[in-house]
Amino acid sequence: MYKSKMPKHSEPKKGQASKTMKGEEDFTTKKSSKDFDRGGKREQTAEGSSVKRRPFTDAQKKALNKHLGDAGMTGKERTSHRMKMMARMRKGMSVAAAHKDIMKK
């Protein structure tokens, strides 16, 4: 008895149209990605940038929560301030430097 030959399954290729996200390409690096696959190597900076994308450390989270805890702000102001602080802290600023930068504007 002979087995019928089934067509071979091919692996998806980088740049092909996505099956799950219509109108998008497969294997593109999303903005939220922390690592980039460039030239067969894993890199932590965006193309043309020197700023590394790394998740917050526990110490950074603790410092930010302590800073926001004693700030007498409404809910909306607190959320806005937190987002601004996080953006600056991701770039390497300390809590004090980020707060000072926000307040001078």
Short structural description:
The protein is mainly alpha-helical. It has helices at residues 58-69, 75-90, 95-103; strands spanning 36-38, 41-43.
General description of the model:
The chain is mainly alpha-helical. It has a domain at 58-103. It contains three helices and two strands; from the N terminus they run E-E-H-H-H. It has helices at residues 58-69, 75-90, 95-103, and strands at residues 36-38, 41-43. The chain has a two-stranded antiparallel sheet with strand order 1-2. A hairpin with a 2-residue loop joins strand 1 and strand 2. Helix 2 (75-90) crosses helix 3 (95-103). The protein is elongated, with a radius of gyration of 22 Å. The termini are far apart. The model has no long low-confidence stretch (mean pLDDT 80).
For the structure shown, list the relevant keywords.
mainly alpha, two-stranded antiparallel sheet, 3 helices, 105 residues, 2 strands
Please compute the radius of gyration using only Cα atoms: 22 Å
SSE succession: EEHHH
Low-confidence stretches: none
Taking strands numbered 1, 2, ... along the chain, how are they ordered across the largest sheet? 1-2
| Shape assignment | elongated
Strand content: 5-15%
Largest sheet: 2 strands, antiparallel
Structural class: mainly alpha
Number of strands: 2
What value does the average pLDDT take? 80
Number of H- or I-type helical stretches = 3
Q: Work out the helicity level.
A: 25-40%
* Through-space gap between termini: 80 Å
Strands, helices and their partners?
Layout: E1 36-38, E2 41-43, H1 58-69, H2 75-90, H3 95-103
